[in-house]
Amino acid sequence: MSVNIEQLARANVRALTPYQSARRLGGNGDVWLNANEYPLPVPFELSQQTLNRYPECQPKQVIERYAAYAGLQPDQVLASRGADEGIELLMRAFCEPGQDAVLFCPPTYGMYSVSAETLGIEYRTVEALPDWQLNLPAIADKLDGVKLVYICSPNNPTGNLVNPDDIRTLLEMTAGKALLVADEAYIEFCPEATLAGWLQTYPHLVVLRTLSKAFALAGLRCGFTLANPPVIELLLKVIAPYPLPTPVADVAAQALSEQGIALMRQHVAELNANRAWLAAQLAQCACVQQVFPSETNYLLARFTDSPAVFKALWDQGIILRDQNKNPGLAGCLRISMGTRDECERLIAALQALPVEQA
To answer: In this structure, are residues 318 and 355 in contact, taking their beta carbons and an 8 Å threshold?
Structure first.
């Protein structure tokens, strides 16, 4: 008996183009500058030996420590499997498929669209302005029926902060109609720009965070949703019964200790110094047309022949992230901050490229 399994799947899933994560794209490099990870392992070790028991749904120590770190109360914090799960939980809790929509502003993080498509929720896009700030009039024209507006600040992959005055305007526009979700995956690299302190003023504001970037725990898959208690209570209705495995909660609690936070801030200072050095060096490379300012652990640069540069580096085991398919990013590659040695290897490889690629 022959069965076409694909035809049993939902139509929107059959048509879905999955998110192309750095690991899905592959490569055989030894200089990985394509996933915005911290380049070195961190010294945490497992201490919990209770794997025979189910974990807490929301591990008390993790929640309390993250709340203290973020300047909030524990009932304003939800832990999840990365911020990616937070993105999707909000859609599951607040959007009716076929009825409600979400909105975001490309070029930006690709999981907003993938999550919406997976759940059968309409998504609308309003391209950012040439300086990658919000096009508020165009957003206003598309807000009817929108339940969630996702804003990434600092934005991935461009690295810029969204103007806080524009965010306030957007909060006023969405009040009583939609939630504004501020994705702050990279906020530790510019902590003064966080919107977490705005939660007391705006009941419909939600902030997404992660331990994947500055905390150097991408492999842990631990993220946080910060919101007012009514939002958190709704998300707890749709989250999996045990979202944080015991080893994840164990290491997350260590990372959020006083010593763990101090280590994170030391790493941030090192990466920010590497970013400043690399930006100056890239600007002097013949193959580089423009290096964009960044408030993150990566740089976006425009190259004279980005496909040739990308392949030449790939063949040498230096793996970058191609951004050519994103709106407004023709010729652009994104470069995660590695160690100083890795950054030096990148610059040496760019300087050695044939003249025709420069």
So the answer is: no
